[in-house]
Structure formats: structure tokens, C-alpha cells
Amino acid sequence: MNWQSARSRLWRLATAEPRPRSMSIWLAIAIGIIALWVVFAPSERVLAGDIRVVYLHVATTWAGMTGIYLAGLLGLALLITQRSQIETWLRSVGWVGLGLFVTGFFLSLVAANTSWGGILWTEPRVIASLHVTAVGFVVQAISVASANRRLKGVLWTLAAGFCAWSLQTAELYFHPEQPISASPSLSIRVAFYGLFVLMLAAGSLAVRLIHVANATAAHNPR
Questions:
Q1: What number of other Cβ atoms are within 10 A of residue 21's Cβ?
Q2: CA 185 to CA 22: how far, in whole Å?
Q3: Nearest Cα to 114, choosing from 27, 52, 164, 184?
Q4: Mean pLDDT of residues grouped by 10 in the chain (222 residues)?
Q5: For the chain, N or C: smaller number of CB within 10 Å?
């Protein structure tokens, strides 16, 4: 085997699309690492071990918001270019971002129950999260049903803007402002931001998995 053919083979291996099964394995590994990270995360004086639910809630919600904002940028790019590649990535990013945000919302209910002794449905941040969830599912439903790329781009751009506006303007009655990032404990901050990075990594793997699975299904129709 000469150098040219070896380099060509390495290039094909490096640029080859990963298989859904291998992506699923990597995603399972990432979830396992997240679970271990949460188990060994430091506790806190007031909330004790219950702070681990707060870790999960905030990190998952932030990762979901990141996905929604990224979907908004992809929506803007789709509106301008109408490229099919952007449309397929938008679909994957949208589902994962929305899924993480909804998961973070449900975890917030668990955190509220353990921290406040109950779920305060009239709390502004809870209402804002419900509004963002509803808008996200409506946008995804329309995006799945419609073939109009401009419409999809407009909807996701507006949805991301609504998410940012709704969460930023919601008054904080019971929700503390930056409860973890403002903590004087370095170990708590490191635990949280490390978990946030892991959530982003798991979300990226989930996006890639959905994208590869869709591409595989499109190339191998039944």
C-alpha cells in the first residue's frame, strides 16, 4: 500500500458517517458519566443532598435553552439560505433542545417540591417555562407538517426570541437569582459547570444521533 492510497483510506475513515448504533453507545456512556457526576457532586449546607436535583435541573434547562437558541440561529440561516442541510440540522437541534428544556422543567418541579415543600404553579418562572414549552411544541408540529422552509426558519427564529424574552422578563418570586454560580463554594460551582458541559456534550451526541438516523432512513427506505 503506497502513501497516497493510505492517506485516501484514512480520509474516508475520518469523514465517514458514524452509525446510529455507535452513536447510541457513546450517548449511553455520556449519560452514565452524568449520573456518576451527580452522585459524587458535593452537597450544600441548607439543601444538603437535595442540591443534586438543583444541579440537574439548572444544567439541563441551560442546555435546553442553548439548544433552542441554536435552533433560532439555524432558523435564521434557513430563512436566508433555504438550504436543505440547514433544515435537517434544525429539525434535530430543535427536538433535542426542546427535549432538554422540558426535562429541565420537570426536574424543576422535583426541586421545588424538595426545596419549597410544594409546586408553585403561579410562580412567574414556572408559567414562563410552560409558555416556552407550549410554543416549542407548536413550532415543531408546524415544522413537521409544513414543507415551507421559510416558514420553519421564521417560526424557530421567533421561538428562540420568545424563549429569551419570556425567561428574562419573568419575575423571581421564589427562584433565587444565580443560586449556584453565585455560590461562594468553589466545589459547588465546579460541579455545576462541569455538569452543564456534560449536558451540552450529551445533547450534541443526541443531535448527531438523530441526524445520522434520519440520513440512514432517507438512504435506506423500506
A1: 9
A2: 38
A3: 52
A4: 53 50 82 88 62 85 95 94 89 94 91 74 86 94 90 94 90 66 72 91 90 65 52
A5: C
